[in-house]
Specification:
With 321 residues, the protein is α/β, with parallel strands linked by helices. The chain contains 10 helices and 14 strands. Helix 9 (288-297) links the parallel strand 13 (279-284) and strand 14 (303-307).
């Protein structure tokens, strides 16, 4: 199969295009014909990208991108959640090759039917970001109706979902954003948007129940000062450098978990118009290096997708089988 991959431990500019063996699904797994995947620049710093769970180095070539949308090509034994030919989206295992290829394998429990209202390139940017926002706000942050939440990075790939989900839960939502994105984030459902370029958030907000941090660094460290005594910080970027014995400091960092049932719920919310998806731009798979260069510039609304199979061609094939 054709794929984009790394032949050595390196940055995105070392990605190459070529042919690698097509994977086969084992028991409990599904083979996906990939139609689109999403760009995650931070993946190049993740431990599982170059290392097995055992700690040994992974073998090259290594294929990046673990969220995708596509069609079920075949299923392994003991898979009853999906059928061949179904359109799906999801996340595959961090420690194996990802979806910058014609095919990838994934556990049958970690995928769901693709929202009917989305194209494949739109669906591909949903799984990691939407699940991160859901799990960070509602599982780790335990955000409830009428509580106060501050979301750092409200216009980013995860932040756009976090603002909408917090609003859906009935929380009072404050978010930080640049001046150019303030109206955009307010339109997502934020009750208040703070321009981080001109205003220190701790000067204008306090007594927060949950801080959801998608920025890290100094922003994360300053966030502890605005919490209620029982408040929580959830960071998807890094552990805090805050010292002391407060267990909330140790527990602030979270990693997303692949969950097919939660993804199905999010997909239903998308189809019902309760959750909007934002796609910054789309690049063909062969232009992965350019897509990473754009993603590393930042200042985006949503995420970047890589198209493996053109959505227009998919629609045409569906009309004329």
């Amino acid at each position: 199969m054709k794929a984009i991959y790394l032949e050595k431990k390196a940055e995105a500019e070392s990605l190459v295009s070529g042919e690698i063996p097509k994977p086969s699904p084992k028991a409990g797994e599904v083979l996906i014909k990939v139609y689109a995947t999403a760009v995650m620049p931070t993946e190049l710093q993740w431990v599982p990208t170059f290392q097995k769970q055992s700690g040994e180095p992974r073998a090259f070539p290594i294929v990046l991108s673990h969220e995708f949308a596509g069609v079920v090509e075949s299923v392994g034994a003991n898979v009853s959640t999906v059928s061949v030919g179904e359109e799906v989206f999801g996340i595959n295992d961090w420690f194996i090759n990802g979806a910058q290829a014609e095919y990838c394998v994934v556990a049958g429990t970690t995928i769901s039917r693709k929202p009917k209202s989305l194209r494949h390139v739109e669906a591909a940017v949903v799984p990691i970001s939407a699940l991160t926002a859901w799990q960070g706000l509602f599982e780790k942050g335990q955000l409830e109706r009428n509580q106060r939440v501050l979301i750092h990075g409200g216009s980013g790939g995860v932040g756009t979902f976090a603002v909408q989900l917090a609003r859906w839960r009935g929380a009072h939502v404050t978010a930080t954003a640049s001046s150019g994105n303030m109206e955009f984030v307010q339109a997502l459902g934020a009750d208040k948007v703070i321009d981080y370029q001109t205003t220190r958030f701790e000067d204008v907000i306090c007594d927060v129940d949950v801080v959801f941090d998608a920025v890290g660094g100094e922003t994360l460290d300053r966030s502890w000062n605005i919490l209620k005594p029982t408040g929580k910080v959830v960071s998807i970027v890094s552990a805090t450098t805050r010292t002391g014995s407060d267990p909330r400091s140790r527990d602030a960092f979270m990693l997303v978990r692949a969950d097919g049932q939660q993804l199905a719920l999010l997909g239903r919310m998308i189809d019902a118009g309760e959750l909007r998806v934002f796609l910054e731009s789309v690049y063909p798979l062969e232009s992965a290096r350019e897509a990473y260069a754009r993603a590393q510039e930042g200042k985006m609304r949503g995420k970047i997708a890589l198209s493996v199979v053109d959505d227009a061609a998919v629609s045409e094939n569906q009309k004329n089988p």
